[in-house]
Amino acid sequence: MVIALLVVALLGGTFGLVVAYNKTVDLSHDIVSIKAQLQSIGAQNTALNNQVLATLGGADFTALVAADGLVADKNPQYFTVNQQWPIASQ
Fold it and tell me: Tens digits of per-residue pLDDT, 56-82?
């Protein structure tokens, strides 16, 4: 009787491990597929950005920006946000 229970437990455990392995492999394939889709979307985004810039024209766009009084800053100084929570620190 004890041996039969051990055999059933062994077979059930083996089956469970096979199912877990198959789920892991399926998840891995899904991740690879989604990464490929993400790269494709990134390429499409780059192509669209290039198309927008080509439509606006680089020189025309620079002239438009200058006409509005905007200046290209080579070393912008961004403001920093204090990460400390004022309520939590009291």
Answer: 766 666 777 777 787 777 777 777 766
Amino acid 38: pLDDT: 92
CA distance linking residue 22 with residue 17, whole number of Å: 9
Q: How far is CA 17 from CA 3, 5, 6, in A?
A: 21, 18, 16
- The total of other beta-carbon atoms located within 10 Å of residue 8's CB is 10
pLDDT tens digit sequence for 25-52: 999 999 999 999 999 998 899 888 878 8
CA dist 17 and 12 (Å) reads 9
Q: Is the dihedral of CA 24, 26, 23, 35 positive or negative?
A: positive
Q: Could you give the maximum distance between any two Cα atoms of the chain, in Å?
A: 91
Q: What angle do CA 18, 19, 24 make, to 5 degrees?
A: 95
